[in-house]
Amino acid sequence: MERGIFMPVSTTEKILSEDYFDLIVPITGSDTDFEETFFRFGAQAAVPGYGIIHINRQFLPDNILNVIGYSNIPKLYTLMDTSALESSGILKVQTQPLLGYQGEGVLIGFLDTGIDFTHPAFRTSDGRSRIYRLWDQTIQSGTAPDGFFYGSEYTNENLNAALNLEDPLETVPSVDENGHGSFLASVAAGTALPLQDFSGAAPKSEIVAVKLKPAKENLRDFFLIRESAVAYQETDIMLALRYLLQCARQAQKPLVICFGLGTNQGDHSGYMPLAEALDTISRMNTVYVVSAAGNEAGRGHHFYGKMENTSDYQNVEVLVPENEGGFTMELWASPPDLFAVGMISPLGETIPPIPPRAGSVTSISFLLEQTVIEVSYEPVEIASGGQLVFLRVQNPTPGIWGFQIYPRQISSGIFHIWLPISGFAMENTRFLNSNPDTTIVCPSNAEGVITCAAYNHATGGLFIQSSRGYTRTGNIKPDIASPGVEVYGARSSASKFAKPGFGRESGTSISAALTAGATALFVNWGLQSDPPRYFTNREIKSLLIRGATRSSNLLYPNREWGYGTLNLYQIFQVLL
Q: Pfam families, alphabetically (predicted)?
């Protein structure tokens, strides 16, 4: 008798097992009603408005996208990277006698690759841990957080006890093998260490860290991402957000969330489940969300098209290198525009336009090649209302593939196509005529989050890969630009990619971390005011924009810099 069909399976097993496919489900009633109604599917309320269920894969149809719907399938997210304090006005706020704020009384939350809790950057001068809570989703041997079904939680007391041992990992075996999470946490909240000439932006804040578990293979296979790609799934990220909020309620402290992940999957207009969840969270009292714009500007992963009449078509060429095992593409358009897709292989085999019928999935096997392409249409995608054409390209023949876009109904005639984010496909899989604009990654297109581009504080130039706005529907993003090139931070002792200690990294997740730390300083100022001042996320975002440094040679806002560069001290000058 096969387990999972006839025998009961715990929610924990469903979360961890490859036999179960995780799905995102909108919650229309109460969280309790949702969990009771879908109890046998391991239902968990995650973030406001959304829950998670787990379905045995044997019960899922082959055309899962059209039966379940695109927005209900968890998307895959990856990392945004590969004298900043002074240029951003943070150092003056830390040291100026009338200010002197360093983040006291504020939690900064990270959901990433984990944190090296043994590193001096996360300890006080007497060696105690500055980490309030650590949830490692990858370790199943400990006790899961209250209300969660997997992973192991370590409190500040657990971490301090471990640090007193000769081998701290003996009782807290959580390590950051990648190092990305530790670096971001150090930039935002690292302890001031004069001997190492180092300080984070908010060195006296407290830290909450979540080490995300890797995405399931069944989801990686669905999106055809590379075996070596670092990928985390939307459901685990949603539960990590819920955990951060739970910790803030327990500590009764304001929470700044630093989001250093992103994806090219999604509508790029802020209506996917995770983006909407972050938008909702940003409207909660004393919760602030800072997110990385992405590093996609020069990668060749975005195509912009515009059609003038329905009698024409546009050829979109994709260069596919040797050894590319497969990739996905997503075409998005706004109503009432409607498009169909045809294609021509590198060997010249032509597929005429496939009619854009709702719920249709067409699988095309090429006669002279081993390539199989599945084309799925959602004329009205349920979350965004736009048209989605989803293509799964399996075993593509190397060379130049042509995808012909045929307008069937047009108003603006505009469409966008995205290839996978860097790392999910081969490096040279790209559009031959790509467009660097509209490359802000999801979920940073969400209106409420503070979205950060990256610039070089030493030269004043924009980071060459920093993703550019606006959103697909024309909303202003990024909001500001922060230092994100060769920024100094902590290296994880367990990192497989760099020597432990300190080093320099670049990317928009670094600029997001710096901005998160700056936000914590401003929140700290509000807490110490008389009477205490509790800002909303919208206020903080507006103040960062108001205080930003702007060049007389540029018009603002713009696609590259948003409203200017971060200058925290200038906000205080304006206010005081």
A: Peptidase_S8
